[in-house]
Structures are given as structure tokens and as C-alpha cells.
Amino acid sequence: MTTDHVATDDSTTETTGPTEASAATGNASTKTARRRASRPTGPAAGTVAQAPTAVRVQAPEPARVRVSKPVVAPPRRAAHRGLVAAIGLGVLALLVAATGALVGVFGVQEHRADAAAARNQQFVDTATNTVVNMFSYDQNTIDDSVNRFVNGTSGPLRDMLSQNNNVDNLKAMFRDTQASSETVVTGAALERVDEIAKNASVIVSARTTVTDLDGVNKPSQPYRYRIIVHEDDNGHMTGYDLKYPDGGN
User: Fold this and answer.
1) Is 37 helix (H, G, I), strand (E, B) or coil?
2) Beta bridge partners of 96
3) Could you tell me the domains of the chain?
4) What backbone phi and psi angles, to 5 degrees, belong to 16?
5) How far apart are CA 193 and CA 201, in angstroms?
6) What residue intervals traverse the membrane (predicted)?
7) Is the Cα torsion angle 172, 175, 179, 180 positive or negative in sign?
8) Terminus-to-terminus CA distance in the chain, angstroms?
9) What is the pLDDT of residues 45-57, one digit of tens each?
10) What's the rounded Cα separation, in Å, for the pair 57 and 54?
11) For residue 130, which of 196, 203, 193 has the smallest C-alpha distance?
């Protein structure tokens, strides 16, 4: 491509010809053929390569687990062992003495209770024996039966039997019946005890059966008595008095 310029003032004709075009083309070719500079990997020439620096990586510390310690009581002061032992022995001695005293008290109380129960039972037994001896007899043993009954009495009852020859009259009456009699106690109960007079009141229930000489039993008859039993200074008990209780036979 050719471009021509003509200058009118200086009569100089500037012509851009093929030479300039060639130069431009050459420059373009030069620019096109230039390669990009490159260098090999590594340090530049003339430079001393440095040894790689070692980087120290610190390993992580293991996690510490805190284990709770058991609670321990603070140490105690040393006790006065001698004093403690003496006090312990003293307390033990007191306990033994108190236990012995309690056992003794309970033993005495139990003994007294047993003695009182035995005494009350003796009052009842004396009353029942008085009733049985008074109404039980046999034709062959009338004297012994009546004497046994009389010997077991005292006080007003004994005085009554001793008057007007009542003992002999009682024996004669039993003989006239031409029979035998048996009395069975069906019940007895202690009413009260008079510790001043040493008398006890006992209610006795009994049934008496009379048998004739032919061995025929008559209907049994029930009786109820209040027997007063007396205890003398020696502890001997006797039938003191005989009464019929209210409402009894």
C-alpha cells in the first residue's frame, strides 16, 4: 500500500514509498519473532543456594485429666488414752452396777408377786377344803370326817361348834341319815383380803350329793357360801366364819 504526500509551499514532495513500508514490516517481524525470556527453576546464576531451613513443629501436649482426690478428714489430735480408758471403765462399772440393781429390783418384785399369788391361792384352797369337809362324810368314817372339819376351823365358826355340844350333835345327825354325802366344789373366787385382820373372803360354789344305804343317789343340791379364812402369825390358815352371800342358798 503506497501513500503519497505533496507539499505545496516548499515544493518538496515527501513520498512514503516502499522503503518505509519495508522498514515497518521488518519492525513488526522483529517484534513478532522476539521470544519471552525465561530462566530455569532455582537460584539465579552466581547466587549461592541456601540450604532449606528446617521448621520445628512442636507436638501437642497430651491433655491432662485431673482426678479428684477423696476427701480425707483432717488428722485428729492424739487422745489421752489413759484418761479415756479410765472413763470407759468407770462408765462400764456404772452400767454393770445399774444392771445388777435393776435385775435385783425386778427379782424382788417378781418374788413378791409370786408370794402374793401363792398366798391368795392358799386362802382359796382353805375355803374350799372347809366346805368339802363340812358336808362330806361316810357312815364308816363319820367321826373322822367331823373331827377333820372342826380342826380346820377357828374364830366364830369354832366357837359355834364348841357350844352346846354341837360337834356330837352333828355326828349323831349324820348317822341318822343312814347315808353318805359327797360335796364337789364347782367354783371359788377370792373377794378381798383384810391385811390388818389377816382375813380373806372367798366365795365358794358347790354341789352336794347324798347317797342312801341302797346306793341310790338323791338329786344334787347346789350351794353357795362365803367363807372367811383367817391367817395366823405362823401363816397357818383356817376356816374363820361361814356366811351365805346375798341371793345365795
Assistant:
1) coil
2) none
3) 104-243 (3.10.450.230)
4) -95, 110
5) 6
6) 83-106
7) positive
8) 183
9) 555 555 555 556 5
10) 9
11) 203
Amino acid letter, residue 16 = T
Of 86-90, 142-146, 158-162, 214-218, where does mean pLDDT reach its minimum?
A: 86-90
Q: Are 229 and 242 in contact (CB under 8 A)?
A: no
Measuring CA to CA, which residue among 37, 42, 38 is closest to residue 52? Answer: 42
Helix runs in the chain, H state only: 18-33, 81-135, 142-151, 155-162, 166-176
What letter represents residue 39's amino acid? R
As a whole number of angstroms, the distance between CA 211 and CA 135 comes to: 13
Per this entry, what is the length of the chain?
A: 249
Which residue carries 372347809 as its cell? Answer: 130
Q: Which of 46-50, 111-115, 117-121 has the lowest mean pLDDT?
A: 46-50
Spatial distance between the Cα atoms of 153 and 44, rounded to a whole number of angstroms: 158
Cell reading at 208: 352336794
Order of all β-strands in the sheet with 221-231: 179-194, 199-212, 221-231, 237-243
Note the pTM of the prediction, 2 decimals: 0.57
Q: In this structure, what DSSP letter does residue 81 have?
A: H
Which helix (H) or strand (E) segment holds residue 203: the answer is strand 199-212
Neighbours of 137 (CB within 10 A): 25
Going from the C-alpha of 231 to that of each of 84, 153, 188, the distances in angstroms are: 59, 11, 18
* Residue 105 in grid coordinates: 429390783
